[in-house]
Amino acid sequence: MNKYAEITGWGKCLPPAVMTNDDLATFLDTSDEWIVSRTGISERRVSHVGTSKLATIAAKNALAAADLDPASIDLIIVGTCTPDEIIPNVASAVQRDIGAKDAAAFDLNAACSSFLYAMHMATQAIRTGAHQRVLLIGAERLTRILDWTKRESAVLFGDGAGAMVLQASDKETGLLASHISCDADARDVLSLDFGLSFDRFGFDGIMQFDFVGQEIFKRAVKGMNAAVENVFQQTGLTTDDIDALIPHQANKRLIDYLGKLCKVPSEKTVINIQKYGNTSSATLPIAFAEAADNGTIKPGDKIMSAVFGGGLTCGAGLIQWGERVTPKQDNQLQLEPGDKSALELIRPLHEQTAAAWRKREV
């Protein structure tokens, strides 16, 4: 039996189409100053392809970094709340498209907490000996489900995917301790309803996105801080032992507040929300991939991660990075550009939703 699940590969996929805050201001009552001051976001990516394609590119990059034959993977977990279709799952498309024919494959939806939830589950699967090589992916195409007439939520999100490879190891590395939970009493403060709960005959063209910002912020800070404290208690470590904080990228204010609560200095906190917005389950693996590729993560670093998402799901984990921070093969495969700009992809969605709201009000 192997005690640890070592991170041996990492990769990401960011769609090439960039939507700036100034782009948003062409059809929303907002401005770059308004968005940056409240969220820390300057731009986000808009995908012209489905979630499974984003996931597949990120997976190929992670496998390249690990220099692994896809056929050797025995489990694929995709964290997502924006699958291409209800059935079949995204993970099965990834399994087919990378050639991991012997891998079990399933999706996990804990919203923005999905990747850490998946890492928690995959680590346990490796520790019990049930699996040896696991491919974890967080992938989202959130721009297709937003109500683009609502400024408060539309400015927050973007598309993207990130991935990791976990391998059974005797080295003390990988996810050493974790805690996941769910504050279900408040699950309605962050929800997305497709028409009448998947009643396609009652769908009037509006994806009802409920986002109670202040309540989410309050519960997110409380939940993530409690999860981090739980992990510290499990390990006997303190903030002085942590080399980096890599949190879910939901809001710059939230990240800063979490850093203060956890007593982690700002220079140890990885932040990339300014470039990508909130990509939900993809924020964590994208941040890890970038931190490894740009040298922020050093061999042997101890990294604390914290997440919060719809449900209301929550979690934290302490990751011990291994000795290798350089990919074994090039892990910078990118998505082919589409023929439309980000604004050209989003404007029709805004117009359709605005028309649907007008019809409903009549």
| H/E element sequence | EEHHEHEHEHEHEEEEHEHHHEEH
Structural class: alpha/beta
Q: What is the CATH homologous superfamily assignment?
A: Thiolase/Chalcone synthase
**Overall domain count:** 1
Strand order of the largest sheet: 1-7-6-4-5
CATH class: Alpha Beta
Helix content: 25-40%
The proportion of strand residues reads: 15-25%
Unreliable stretches (pLDDT < 50, length at least 5) are none
User: What sort of overall outline do the alpha carbons produce when their principal axes are compared?
Assistant: globular
N- and C-termini, Cα separation: 64 Å
- Write the CATH fold name: Peroxisomal Thiolase, Chain A, domain 1
How does the major sheet shape up?
Answer: 5 strands, mixed
CATH architectural category: 3-Layer(aba) Sandwich
Mean pLDDT reading: 91
Number of helices: 11
Pathway: Lipid metabolism; fatty acid biosynthesis
Active site: 112, 248, 278
Region (ACP-binding): 249-253
InterPro entries: ACP_syn_III_C, ACP_syn_III_N, FabH, Thiolase-like
List the helices and strands and how they pair.
Elements: E1 4-13, E2 17-20, H1 21-24, H2 32-39, E3 43-46, H3 51-66, E4 75-79, H4 90-98, E5 104-108, H5 114-127, E6 133-141, H6 151-154, E7 159-169, E8 174-182, E9 190-194, E10 207-211, H7 213-235, E11 244-245, H8 252-261, H9 273-276, H10 283-293, E12 302-309, E13 313-320, H11 342-361
Parallel strand pairs: 4-5, 4-6, 11-12
Antiparallel strand pairs: 1-7, 2-3, 6-7, 8-13, 9-10, 12-13
Helix pairs in contact: 3-4, 7-8
